[in-house]
């Protein structure tokens, strides 16, 4: 359920929806159902058991996008980042230490292996060749320079 009421594109077709409690309820249910696909919320229930969507911060400067993603327990060799045009995809896996010691029984363990996956689009294209990634203390930092617009080409009208 949304706490902030936003105008829906459906309201144009049903002008009395805001006055109708049942209409508001149905509209809210439909918006909530599709929210993970439109807002980038957690999608682990569709991605499979043990797959988490890392939380991210995206900042835009004049020349680049700076992205931070929380990925605790992940080593840099287990992270894959791909950038294609405006699309950024982050995948990683934290491996569980399953070493068993003689004479010990694990009574309780909250440590587990976890997979991370997140894919999102940026508003402008990125220069893939100049992109950089750095992982430190469970925080993945991406520096993605914006692709410079090429010089305009003047056409001769014939």
Description of the structure:
By secondary structure, the chain is α+β, with helices and mostly antiparallel strands. The chain folds into two domains: 13-39, no CATH class; 49-145, Immunoglobulin-like, CATH 2.60.40.790. It is built from two helices and eight strands. It has helices spanning 21-39, 44-47, and strands at 51-52, 56-60, 64-70, 79-84, 87-94, 114-121, 132-136, 139-145. Strands 1-6-5-4 form a four-stranded mixed beta sheet. Strand 4 and strand 5 (87-94) form a beta hairpin. Mean pLDDT is 77; it is low at 39-48.
Please give a quick description of this structure.
This protein has 158 residues and is of the alpha+beta class.
Based on secondary structure, the structural category is: alpha+beta
Biggest sheet record: 4 strands, mixed
Q: Tally the beta strands.
A: 8
Oligomerization state: single chain
| Overall radius of gyration | 22 Å
Mean pLDDT: 77
CATH class of the largest domain: Mainly Beta
Main β-sheet, spatial strand arrangement: 1-6-5-4
- Low-confidence segments, given as residue ranges, are 39-48
Second rung of CATH, namely the architecture of the largest domain: Sandwich
- Number of spatially distinct domains: 2
**Approximately what portion of the residues adopt beta-strand conformation?**
25-35%
CATH topology name of the largest domain, in short, is: Immunoglobulin-like
Please state the overall shape, judged from the principal axes of the Cα atoms. Answer: flat
Q: Helical content, roughly?
A: 10-25%
